[in-house]
Amino acid sequence: xxxxxxxxxxxxxxxxxxxxxxxxxxxxxxxxxxxxxxxxxxxxxxxxxxxxxxxxxxxxxxxxxxxxxxxxxxxxxxxxxxxxxxxxxxxxxxxxxxxxxxxxxxxxxxxxxxxxxxxxxxxxxxxxxxxxxxxxxxxxxxxxxxxxxxxxxxxxxxxxxxxxxxxxxxxxxxxxxxxxxxxxxxxxxxxxxxxxxxxxxxxxxxxxxxxxxxxxxxxxxxxxxxxxxxxxxxxxxxxxxxxxxxxxxxxxxxxxxxxxxxxxxxxxxxxxxxxxxxxxxxxxx
Length: 285
What we know:
By secondary structure, this protein is an alpha+beta fold. The chain has helices at 16-32, 35-40, 78-81, 83-86, 89-93, 139-156, 202-210, 212-222, 262-269; strands at residues 2-10, 41-49, 69-75, 100-116, 125-133, 164-170, 187-188, 193-199, 226-243.
């Protein structure tokens, strides 16, 4: 399985509160009633940037793009990424709901969990490092040094500080997958990976920087494989919208995929050609 991740931002004329409403409620409602989406994305997680974070709390600074949110989609394989964009239901239902800017950071990733505390599932405060690779390193060398650094972080961090640590490693992706979609202007493949670290509180997260000895040791490790230019942090809350892959947390099947439900029947009516006499569906694809 693979992760398709993207960082995004709101339109300049929109407040963050309104943007979170559009993304967290309307966008989710559209997803849950779009068959190609529910057939393709095996897990969907939203991340909402937390206000009041400054760079003095972080190992790497926030992005000058001021990203508002990040989305995490799990798919079965590479081919599954583009399936919703090739079906008519996605462009007809999802794309007209444009509430963000045209700026995205987009990556396809393969993940590895280095640590997870007993009983952990999701939620809480989450630090995300979007990491650039030192140019003289191959991706294999970068990943090996990253994995070693992650294990060292777990050893030197105060016991119980880090709830979970995941490294999401770069997988090559053709940007053409997103042609004629909302993501076609995304900066695809710019990052070597995304590091996910879960904490209980923002104060716990800030310990990585506030503890001078810990911060110095961590930076020394990152400096062996990370290029500082364009590497950035995000600090978010995490919301699992649905999950079809995690034992003990499996979501119900979307009703739009179940014959006999109202959602299924409405979907079969179609989403174009309203109020057009003599409408020819082939002309409006």
